Backbone:
């Protein structure tokens, strides 16, 4: 979903940016530290690299993440959250808290097992 500058509803505009599971998942994985593509791919084991690349580009265009390229051989690229991306983390934490309560999911038990 593309976000139109003239969008009148804030919720619709936000959903255009974060309204798919891959953008949310990438943002969530970057919440604590920078990750290289391969590290991100390992955490998203059931997603093909082409899909991850597309969503990384989308998030970079939306200024949710930034991509840092290091001039090395072989080239090294790291992804991290921007200020806007970091501001999104409390929202995602609220969503996971709500989902945990709604589904009766013991989040602490899950955190301790991983």
Residues:
């Amino acid at each position: 979903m593309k976000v139109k500058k003239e969008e009148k509803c804030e919720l619709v505009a936000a959903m255009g940016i974060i309204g798919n599971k891959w953008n949310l998942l990438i943002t969530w994985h970057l919440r604590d530290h920078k990750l290289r593509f391969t590290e991100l791919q390992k955490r998203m084991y059931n997603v093909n690299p082409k899909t991850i690349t597309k969503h990384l580009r989308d998030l970079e265009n939306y200024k949710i993440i930034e991509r840092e390229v290091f001039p090395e051989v072989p080239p090294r690229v790291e992804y991290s959250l921007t200020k806007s991306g970091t501001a999104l983390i409390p929202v995602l934490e609220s969503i996971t808290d709500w989902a945990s309560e709604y589904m009766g999911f013991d989040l602490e038990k899950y955190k301790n097992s991983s």
Summary: Helices lie at 10-18, 21-29, 37-43, 49-61, 83-103, 107-113. Residues 58 and 64 are 9 Å apart (CA to CA). The domain at 10-113 is CATH 1.10.10.10 (Arc Repressor Mutant, subunit A).
